[in-house]
TrEMBL record:
It comes from the Bacteria. Transmembrane segments: none annotated. InterPro entries: ClpP/crotonase-like_dom_sf (IPR029045), ECH/Chromodomain_protein (IPR051053), Enoyl-CoA_hydra/iso (IPR001753), Enoyl-CoA_hydra_C (IPR014748). NCBIfam families: PRK08260.1. It comes from Gordonia lacunae. SUPFAM superfamilies: ClpP/crotonase (SSF52096). This is Enoyl-CoA hydratase. GO terms for molecular function: catalytic activity. Belongs to the enoyl-CoA hydratase/isomerase family.
Length: 300
């Protein structure tokens, strides 16, 4: 695996970045990089991750993103260094109010949840996302993984849905994501009960797709990301990801039919489809000419 922080990822405005970005060929690897704090989440970390996803979306040489953590934990949740006022955003200096800049809350009174700004950015990603959960995670350390397409966990991983035990509620739009992954009864059991979920149960209920030894979790995630993209046209992969995620919340199959019809219409005229069909008929590997940055049609 080679490291390259110049091609993908922006340097933090801070002296000490909270993430690092590497490349393994066509796979970008984001590492949460606060191992002394168990990679606890901060506003800076959220900003850096969102900027990194902006970069990978714009870089046609990146086919997929793998997200992992440095050290023994994936992410311990929000950094609690501020103590009991950690989650009180009512008087935070410079707090963005809903309706301003990248805030997504439809109100002029409530600041946007930082975890939600990250998960909505991940939801919009044009590249597949695989998470390598390299150890325990809790709070936003769990909910930030929910918009990923695949989660690979180490044998020592566990998942803390601990919000109610801190007087909070689940954040990061997890009330939308989590039931779609594990079902409503399981989501209710885990979150209302503030449960620390063992990796075996997380795997059984569908939160995790694969459990591997700790020293294999990153390599396995990279292999899964590569397998997902090796034979796929990049534009088709981006559209397919958006279709499946967005239609997961559609009220009717008619919504999916409308979106599918647009995607098929525009893709059917593309050089990718011509190449995909001809390469199949000629029994050779395809070389797709279209790029996500230049040729992604507007279907939503």
């Amino acid at each position: 695996m080679t490291s390259d922080t110049s091609e993908v990822g922006r340097k933090s405005r801070q002296d000490q970045p909270t993430i690092t970005v590497e490349r393994d060929g066509e796979i970008a690897i984001f590492r949460l990089n606060r191992p002394d704090r168990l990679n606890a989440f901060t506003m800076q970390m959220g900003e850096e991750l969102r900027a990194a996803f902006d970069d990978t979306d714009a870089d046609d040489s990146v086919r997929a993103v793998v997200l992992t953590g440095n050290g023994r934990a994936f992410c311990a949740g929000a950094d609690l260094e501020a103590g009991g006022s950690t989650f009180d955003a009512s008087s935070a200096p410079g707090a963005k109010r809903a309706g301003q800049d990248d805030s997504v809350v439809d109100s002029d009174e409530v600041p946007a949840d930082e975890g939600g700004k990250l998960t909505l950015r991940m939801f919009a990603s044009l590249k597949p996302i695989v998470v390598a959960v390299n150890g325990p995670s809790a709070g936003v350390g769990v909910t930030m993984t929910l918009p990923a397409d695949v989660r690979i966990a180490s044998e020592d991983a566990k998942f803390g849905f601990v919000f109610a035990a801190r007087g909070l509620v689940p954040e990061a739009a997890s009330s939308w994501f989590l039931p779609r992954l594990v079902g409503l009864p399981t989501a209710l059991q885990w979150t209302i009960g503030a449960k620390m979920v063992p990796v075996a149960e997380a795997h059984e209920r569908g939160l995790i797709q694969q459990v591997v030894p700790k020293d294999q979790v990153l390599d396995t995630a990279i292999a899964v990301a590569r397998e997902m993209t090796a034979n796929s046209a990049p534009v088709s992969a981006a559209l397919t990801r958006q279709l499946l995620w967005r239609m997961a919340g559609a009220p009717s199959p008619l919504d999916a039919h409308v979106a599918d019809s647009k995607a098929i219409f525009y893709r059917g005229q593309s050089g990718d489809v011509y190449e995909g069909v001809m390469s199949f008929l000629e029994k050779r590997s395809a070389t797709y000419p279209n790029t996500v940055s230049a040729d992604l049609p507007e279907i939503f």
